[in-house]
Amino acid sequence: MTQAVGPQYTRILSLGAARGDLDVPNDDIIGPIDSSDEWIRQRTGIISRKRASKNVTAADLAVAAGSEAIEKAGIDPSRVGAVLVSTISGTMATPSVSTLVAERLGVGTVPAYDVNAACAGYTYGIAQADALIRSGLAEHVVVIGAEKLSEMVDPTDRSISFLLGDGAGAAVVGPSDEPAISPTVWGSDGSHWSSIWMTGTFQQWRDGELESFPTMRQDGQTVFRWAVWEMAKVARQAIEVAGIRPEDLTAFVPHQANMRIIDELAKQMKLPESVLIGRDIATTGNTSAASIPLATHRLLEEHPEASGGLSSRSASERAWSTAPRWYGSPRIRGGHFEPSPRPSQSRR
Ligand SMILES: CC(C)(COP(=O)(O)OP(=O)(O)OC[C@H]1O[C@@H](n2cnc3c(N)ncnc32)[C@H](O)[C@@H]1OP(=O)(O)O)[C@@H](O)C(=O)NCCC(=O)NCCS
């Protein structure tokens, strides 16, 4: 009998991004929730959010982001061994978003499945891609976080509607000659199952038991406290298991839930001023599973010196810089460290 064995190490080779085509500033949504531009900016750091037109789906955004990532990885699509789409906003319970995306990416009949882990979805996807490659089940894996959350909000809801946006971020994960994705610290906490919820089930909607189609709600303060205190612990744990120190980091890219959460986490982690921080939420909003790859993509676009620095360090062959990845959700948690794609290694 034989057993599959893969390469010892993996890395992210490239990233891709696609945001909703519409800019929705705070002033456009405050009426139905009796809010103000000032309140939203102060409490969340959001100035405007990206949302997609009616005819655009999460799968469309995923294909756009995934295509860019595959092109930038410089690999033939036939070398993609699996496609994972992390999403909570597919248009149907089945078939999966990922099978449609794999078909449209032209990667053939490879394994494709959806990951339903909300804001943690992308980090869950990277953890699985790393494991699939190292176990010899795939040579390269496309991981995509894709959401059209505007379909899931009630414009009159004051609890969460104003936070959410639409977009997709993608990564190609492949083999590496050196350690480049640290161990993932992950888990879940079902005791907070009801901190973020839907207003009802599809069955209740079908049976006429709901006044309107189910939409999202949250207990904002509970989620806020949980994100800051518990996620800071997970982030510190991820640093520890990676065998690095906060001052070794080039960038910190947490889930883009709320600018105040991002700032508080950076403070608790005692990050030095030199560490770049992903703050894509200001103009994209909270895109759940898409938020970390979107924020990383933007950070590298706005700070090409970070790519240059990483590239120059890669010349030493053993050195690697890290960009932290973790997410905050009351139900599922995970985090790990990984280097941002380096120009010198992004084309193989
Ligand atoms: C949602 C969130 C922005 C609310 O901010 P907050 O500072 O906790 O606000 P509070 O709920 O304490 O409410 C403060 C005041 O603002 C009011 N308020 C609540 N929502 C409001 C809104 N949308 N617009 C204007 N005022 C609002 C409240 O009524 C309250 O008024 P009061 O002081 O007169 O009683 C914040 O809790 C948050 O970001 N939570 C975590 C979000 C998150 O990570 N979600 C994960 C999903 S991926």
TrEMBL record:
Residues 324-348 are annotated as: Disordered. Pfam families: ACP_syn_III (PF08545), ACP_syn_III_C (PF08541). Residues 240-307 form the Beta-ketoacyl-[acyl-carrier-protein] synthase III C-terminal domain. CDD domains: KAS_III. Residues 113-190 form the Beta-ketoacyl-[acyl-carrier-protein] synthase III N-terminal domain. Signal peptide: none annotated. Keywords: Acyltransferase, Transferase. This is Beta-ketoacyl-[acyl-carrier-protein] synthase III.
